[in-house]
Amino acid sequence: QQRTFITRDIKTPDPVPVAGQEEALELMRSGRMYRYNIAKGEESVVSLCEQEIAAYTDFKYCVALNSCGSALMLLLKTSGLKPGEEVLSNAFTFGAVPSAIEHAGGKAVYVESDYNHLMDVDDLEKKLVMYPKCKHVLISHMRGKVADMDAIANACERHGATLLEDCAHSLGVKWKGKHTGHMGRACAVSSQSYKMINSGEGGFFLTDDPEMAAKCAVYAGAYEGLSGKHITVPGPEHFGNLPNELPNYSLRMSNLAASVVRPQILTLEERITKYNERYAKLTKAVSERMGNHLSIPVNTPGVTTPVHDSLQFNLSHDITEEQVMHFLEACASHGLPVELFGNKSNARNFVNWGFAPAEDPLPQTGAMLSRACDVRMPYMWDDSDFDDMANVLCECLESVLE
């Protein structure tokens, strides 16, 4: 039987629209790439970008930063985390999340994740009881998958913990009609290359809390009253003496990064529609052929708008570890890199976080990661390429099960 091969690059990023290229070129001609290098009465490109991100996500305040990791760290700093205090977070997330907790001076404690790749609400409740001094929960919407946010917010409220949301992967995702991030006190989104908006590196701190927004702007580098050159921060009465009380970490986004983000915001809805259409067709094809041997995570009721810009599935535990490895090797040899979240080198596997190790057993997460697979869905591919993707996945799995 003839096998399917893929020749496209799985890591193809979204290109910058022409408008962004032109604005970036103009900035380079002028040399005004620093966000505060603007004349009185003018608005920087970063300020305009912040205004547009805030409008898209329906937040009052937005501070653009050099990375989402910086935004995550500042979520914790601005919400009052003290050195050594515990922070509950997903056991399944990217290593940048525990890194941000460590960066903020906190101690990461992990909550089990389930086979829908979500924070386990029952284990969150258990950990909040086990760690009564823990006053911060940083939930990560990994790969755009959103847990039962009503139950999570309720648990945090009952235990007196501040809920913060890592929305790096959930730009465009809505919970009960509202953009993700609003169930917590503040959130962070990303513009790293493999996210829905691509500036290479970048992030945005979003909140309706004026005190957190003011502190974030100062930590990021709004010294000597430079907050007056922002549009999406609170008024001067919220800044007071903060520029003299807080350190300046120099985490600002540059005008150059903002210039390439802005036109991509305009195309988000169009791209979300195409991603979701392709995902529905791809998962249908894979499930119909191999549904007895794998499961695909399902959306939580309450997610009114998903964004499926990548594919995740769980191989059955009836498939041996050796067969899992053979499946990954077969896919790679047919042009489709498939990542196993539980791989010993994967930065999303909690066993690799030696800088913030798990002290409690995490058997459910470990078992899930040992069979959880991840495949990119590059927007720039053609629709027919996703037919090939489905064929490669199914053919390779069939071959190792023969």
Radius of gyration: 22 Å
Beta-strand portion reads 5-15%
The helix count comes to 13
Share in helix:
25-40%
The strand count comes to: 14
Head-to-tail CA distance between termini: 14 Å
Low-confidence stretches: none
Question: Which class do the helix and strand fractions yield?
Answer: alpha/beta
On the 0 to 100 scale, the average pLDDT is 97
In the sheet with the most strands, the strands line up as 1-9-8-5-4-2-3
For the sheet with most strands, the description reads:
7 strands, mixed
Shape: globular
Please provide the ordered H/E string of secondary-structure elements: HHEHEHEHEHEEEEEHHHHEEEHEHEH
Structural account:
The chain is 38% helix and 14% strand. It has 13 helices and 14 strands. The protein has helices at residues 18-30, 45-57, 68-78, 96-103, 121-130, 149-159, 210-220, 242-245, 255-265, 268-290, 321-333, 363-369, 383-401; strands spanning 61-65, 86-90, 107-111, 136-140, 162-166, 174-175, 178-179, 186-190, 203-207, 294-295, 303-305, 310-315, 339-340, 372-376. A hairpin with a 2-residue loop joins strand 6 and strand 7. Helix 3 (68-78) packs across helix 4 (96-103), helix 3 crosses helix 7 (210-220) and helix 11 (321-333) packs antiparallel against helix 13 (383-401). The radius of gyration is 22 Å and the shape is globular. It starts with 17 loop residues before the first helix and ends with a helix.
